[in-house]
Write a structure and sequence with these properties.
- The protein folds into 4 domains: 42 residues, no CATH class; 119 residues, Band 7 domain (Tetrahydropterin Synthase, Chain A); 72 residues; 31 residues.
- It has 6 helices and 11 strands.
- A hairpin with a 2-residue loop joins strand 2 and strand 3.
- By secondary structure, it is an alpha+beta fold.
- Helices cover 50% and strands 20% of the residues.
- Helix 3 packs antiparallel against helix 4.
- Strands 6, 7, 8 and 9 form a 4-stranded antiparallel β-sheet that branches. A 3-stranded antiparallel β-sheet has the order 3-2-5, covered by helices on one side. The protein has a two-stranded antiparallel ribbon with strand order 1-4.
């Protein structure tokens, strides 16, 4: 009876040992199978049937997106005499608190590298990203950092952090980055806010001036167009009148050449006709007067004197 029980226990232990060779791989996971230390397979999700424990090792790897935060941590307590983590010095010697978050996934073509470096991945990514962030901030002025950091820094972090960790063979690929905190230190935040408001007022004034400039240029262009149109119309009218006057003169010249053959005094008649018209216009404007108005007892008197000034 005792031998029977020992046999059953041995069979159960053997069965349990053999079952350790079965490994379910869930969706969102990959596996690296090493047999006697040698990588023999990298199966996809499903049930892996292999050798039992001790002969084969199966490392399960999540291929979901992982996130690591780098830089400033407002909840971390730092001694008063130490610079808080994530406080960086800008190119113009100002301090800014910056926190960024890096999203990465396992590169499915480099599963073995990730298995070998898994314990170091987060620390290396964090330090590399923080170094890249420090370089970007140190090469720019604080105004540009605060204004453009949210838009420009994430893409810079992704490309340069990936390049920096390539030599470590971590088996990961950085996909996305974002800046979750970008502010001056609390001690000087009020001063930065004042500067920001002043810069906003300056930009507003500049924009208003530019709009006023555009409005003035538009009005000036409109007035110039109207003047040009009037000038062109006046030019066209004067040319038309001049052409008509020239045509009349040409016709009268032809008539003169034709009639002078029969009437040698025709030119004098024309001259007196024009003089009559001129005298009529001068009389209408008060520039011509009859001499009869200047006849007196002593004869013709055409001497005129200005009126005497009035006595005060």
């Amino acid at each position: 009876m005792k031998k029977f029980i020992i046999s059953i226990v041995a069979v159960l232990v053997l069965a349990g040992w053999l079952l350790t060779g079965l490994k379910p791989i869930k969706p969102g996971q990959r596996a690296v199978v090493r047999r006697f230390g040698q990588v023999v397979a990298t199966p996809e999700p499903g049930l892996w049937v292999g050798l039992p424990w001790g002969l084969e090792r199966v490392d399960l790897i999540s291929v979901q997106v992982c996130r690591v935060a780098v830089g400033y941590d407002k909840d971390a307590e730092e001694p008063d005499d130490m610079i808080p983590r994530g406080q960086f010095l800008s190119g113009d010697h100002n301090l800014v608190n910056v926190q960024a978050k890096i999203d990465y996934t396992v590169d499915e073509t480099k599963l073995v590298d990730f298995v070998e470096q898994a314990d170091r991945v987060e620390g290396i990514v964090s330090r590399a990203a923080e170094a890249v962030m420090a370089e970007w901030i140190a090469s720019r002025k604080v105004d540009e950092i605060l204004l453009r950091g949210q838009a420009d820094l994430p893409m810079y972090l992704v490309h340069h952090t990936q390049a920096r960790i390539e030599d470590y063979r971590l088996g990961i690929r950085i996909h996305h980055g974002n800046v979750s905190h970008l502010l001056p230190p609390p001690q000087v935040k009020a001063d930065f806010d004042d500067v920001t408001r002043a810069q906003t007022a300056v930009h507003t004034a500049v924009n208003e001036a530019q709009l006023r400039r555009i409005e003035i240029l538009r009005d000036a262009g409109k007035e110039s167009f109207e003047i040009q149109n009037r000038a062109e119309g006046y030019q066209t009218e004067r040319l038309r009148l001049a052409q008509a006057e020239a045509d009349r003169f040409s016709q009268r010249l032809l008539v003169y050449h034709r009639l002078r053959k029969d009437n040698p005094n025709y030119l004098a008649a024309l001259w007196w006709d024009e003089m009559g018209k001129l005298f009529a216009r001068l009389k209408e404007t008060g520039h011509l007067d009859l001499l009869d108005n200047h006849l007196g007892a002593d004869g013709l008197d055409i001497t005129t004197f200005p009126p005497l000034p009035k006595k005060k």
